[in-house]
Amino acid sequence: MSxxxxxxxxxxxxxxxxxxxxxxxxxxxxxxxxxSGFVHPLSGPDHLLxxxxxxxxxxFLGRPLVYALPVVFPMMMVAGAIVGMAGIVIPxxxxxxxxxxxxxGGCIALAFRAxxxxxxxxxxxxxxCHGYAHGRELPSAADPMGYxxxxxxxxxxxxxxxxxxxxxxxxxxxxxxxxxxxxxxxxIGCVFLVGAVAR
Length: 199
Prior knowledge:
Blueprint: H1 3-15, H2 33-43, H3 45-61, H4 65-85, H5 93-109, H6 116-137, H7 144-166, H8 174-198
Helix pairs in contact: 1-8, 2-7, 3-4, 3-5, 3-7, 3-8, 4-6, 4-7, 5-6, 5-8
């Protein structure tokens, strides 16, 4: 497969999101239930890109992080959601969410081979921000348990999608394509960041 095709394959999910506004956590009034929870992470490009980036960076880093990062993120996301549901205030979480896209995309673009504890810490910190934002919304949802299960399952599948994209690194030109995708993700994250700071 040519390098151009690898680049297009790696960038296709990202390109499709460029014109979409960040909307994964725009307020309360959630419908609730499993289906609503499952669809919600797919409806906001900021959350979607961060989740795919966790898997993509993990695949780029290899073992043990390819397995560890997709476990750390949902666990810490749940912890953040609990904090949000408890009504504890964490300031500037929207900025943290936008930064997650910038930083994770940047780590991929720069091929940052972080030690296990640093990579896990970066992912855990951003997971708390994502979980907190959704935890603040969750009490307004009917069937919050079903919603939570659907949400975590969709998040895990987005991690798996990132890992699958990361498997392209084994092909000729694949590592370069992945790094280009990371750069595009980081650039989109900058747009999210400007919007979050302007709020």
